[in-house]
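Box 4.2: Ligand-aware structure prediction
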Amino acid sequence: MSPKLRLLTAITLAMGMIIALLGLMISHQPPSVQAAAPPQTQTGKPLPSGNKTEQPLSSTQTIATNVQGAKAIAIADIDLDGDLDTIGIAQTSGHILWWENANADGSSWISHTVASGINNLADLAAADIDRDGDTDVTAVSSSGDSLLWWENSASDGTAWTVYTMSTSLNGAASIHTADIDRNGATDLLVTAKNDNDIIWYQNPLTVTREMT
Ligand SMILES: [Ca+2]
Ligand SMILES: [Ca+2]
Ligand SMILES: [Ca+2]
Ligand SMILES: [Ca+2]
C-alpha cells in the first residue's frame, strides 16, 4: 500500500469513528422536555344561585329603640317557650333588658326588665347557671369590678333574683359561659382588664382558677 493510500485509509477510518461517536451522542440525548400546559383559566361561571333573588343579610329589622347606651347582647330562650329571645345591656341607663320574640320569627318584640340601677355594665351572657333547666343571666360591671348573675326565678323571665359572685374583678370587661371542665355545669369565663387577668369560675361558683 502506497503511503498516500495508507493516509487516505487512516482518514476514512478516523471519519468513520467520529461519525459513529456523534451517532452515539445523539442517541443518548435526553428526551426533549414537553412544554408545560398553560394554566387552566377560570371559567368565570357564577355560583349557583338557585331561586334566590335577594342578597343575604340585606334587610334589617329593629328589635328595640331608645336602649340608652345599647351595648352587649346575647340570644337565648329566656321564657322557655321554644323560641330565641334577645337580652341586652342599656349601659347609660344601667339596665339589663330582654326582648321576648313574640311571634317566634323575629318580627315582633316585647321588652322586659331583668335589672336596673347598675353602673357601667360591660358585658353579659345567658346560660342555665343553677342547672334547673331555665336560662339565667350573668353580667360584669367595669366600675363595680363585679360579676353578678340573675336567677330566672319563675323560669319565664318575669322574676329575677340577683347574686353577687365577685366585686374584685379589677376593670371587669367581658364574660362568656361554657362547660369548661365538662362536668355538665356551665362555668363562667371573665376578663379583668385592669389586672390583665383572664379567670374562669368553676360551677359550683366557689372556685376560681387564674390563667394569667
Ligand atoms: Ca322564647
Ligand atoms: Ca336556671
Ligand atoms: Ca329558675
Ligand atoms: Ca363545668
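In the box above, the bound molecule is calcium ion. Residues 3-27 form the longest helix (25 residues).
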